[in-house]
Amino acid sequence: MLIERIYDEDLAQASYFIGCQAKGEAIVVDARRDIETYRSLAAANGMRIVAVTETHIHADYLSGTRELAAATGATIYVSGEGGPDWQYEFAGELLYDGDTVSLGNITVKAVHTPGHTPEHLSFLITDGAFSDQPGYLLSGDFVFSGDLGRPDLLDEAAGGVNTRFEGARQLFSSLRDKFLTLPDYVQVHPGHGAGSACGKALGAIPSSTVGYERLYAWWGPYLAANDEQGFINELLDGQPDAHAYFARMKRENRQGPAVMGERAPLAELDPAAVAADLAADTVTFVDTRPHTQVHEGTVAGSLNIPDGKSVASFGAWVVNPETDKNPLVLLAGSAAQAERMRDHLVRVGIDSVAGYVTSLAGLPTATPKLIQPEELEGFDAALVLDVRNRTEHTAGHIPGSGQLSGGRVMWHLDELPAEGTIVTYCQSGVRNSVAASALRRAGYDIVELDGSYAGWSARKAAVAATR
Q1: Would you give the DSSP letter of residue 413?
Q2: Torsion angle defined by CA atoms of residues 385, 368, 266 and 339, in that order, rounded to the nearest 10 degrees
Q3: Most CB contacts within 10 A, which of 47, 101, 189, 283?
Q4: pTM score
Q5: Residue 177 CB neighbours (<10 A)
Q6: From 3.60.15.10, 3.40.190.100, 3.40.190.10, 1.10.287.110, which CATH number describes the 2-255 domain?
Q7: Which residues is 137 bridged to in the sheet?
Q8: pLDDT in tens, 368-426
C-alpha cells in the first residue's frame, strides 16, 4: 500500500493519495483543484486514479474532486449523511456510515463523524496484504493533531443560527462512540495542520495516533469524565475569526465547483495594452511584491497579494469572483512565478487571470499613504482599524481602535465610516497592506500605520524607557 500526503502550506490543507501497488489503482481524498501533483504521483507509481472522494463540504478551499474525476475518469464518492440540508448537488456515488470502497488489497471504510459539519465522514484504511484490521484513519476536519475541527463555522460561514452547540455535542458523541473505540495503534492523518482557521490550536506534526490523542489532546479529560458541557464550553471558547470567503466555498463545494479542464499557459502581456485596460477599468492589477516595496510605489488601484505562503488566503480576502468580474493581471518576475500564483488562486475559486507583466514600467503608479507611529496621536482619523484577528486585538491593541479582521473587512463595509480617513494596522504590516489595498480600491481614504502594531508597541516601549 502507498499513502502519500500532499500538503498545501498556503491553506494548511492536506489531501491524500492512497494506492494499491498490486492492482495499480488509487483513490485521492480531499483533492485540490490544481491536480497535476496527483496525476504525477499516479504516473510515477504506475497507477490509475479510479476513485476520488472528500471528507465533507469544505469551507476553506474549493474542492478538486470534480476536476480530478473529469481528468481521469475516476468515480466520485461523496457523503450521503447529514440529512437533506447537507446533500451534495452534483453527481456521485453516495457513502453512508460503514460503506466501503475497495482498491485491490485496500479497503476504505466510511465512518460518519459529524460535529464539524453534519455530513462529515472519516475514512478507515485497511491494508489487506498485512492485516484484516484498519491501521489508518483519514480524519478530515474531525480530529487534528492536538485539536478538533471547530463546530461554529456553519454559524460563521453558512448562515446557521446557533448550530455550534449541536455541532459541539455531535463532536463529543463522535469522539466517544467512534474515535475512542478504535485501537490506540491506528494512525491518524488529519485534513489540516497549524495555521488553518478550521480549529484554534492545531498541531504542526503531520500525523498522530488514536492512543496519543486519547492521552494528550486537550479534550481527553472531558471525555474520560463524560463532561459534555465542559467539553462544549472549552471547544467554543476562543475560536479564531472565520474568513468571510468561507461562505462562498461552502456554496460552491456543495453545488459542485466548475471544472477548469486543461489550462493554457499564462501570457506575458504588453504593458501599453495593460495600461489601456487599467484606464478603462476592465482589469484589476495585482502587485505581488512585499508590502515594503509596494509602499514605495505601485499601480494605482491595485491589490497587494504578496507572493509567498498565503497567496490563496490573501487572494480570497480581497477578490470575490461573484462580484469582482475583472480578470487579474499579475506582476510576476517570470512565467513560472505567475503560473504558481495562478495555481494558488484557483484553490479558492479565483479562476480569471488574464496574464502577467514583469515590471511596472509604462503603468500608472501611485504611492500609498503612510503614517508613522509618533504621528498617530492627535491625527484626525475617522477610525483606527485593527485588521488582525479578534484574539490578537483582545491580547493588546492601540487604544480606541476598532477590530475587523482582514479576512472579513470587505464583507462588512457597513461597519466602516462612510467619510473621513481610516488608519489601518495589523501586527507587522503584511496583512494590513493586503486589506488596505482592497479598501483603497473600493474608494476609502486609507492611511497605513508604518510598522503596524509592532512598530507602535516598540515606540511605546522606547518612550516609556526614557521616563
Answers
A1: G
A2: -50
A3: 189
A4: 0.94
A5: 10
A6: 3.60.15.10
A7: 124, 188
A8: 999 999 999 989 999 999 999 999 999 999 999 999 999 999 999 999 999 999 999 99
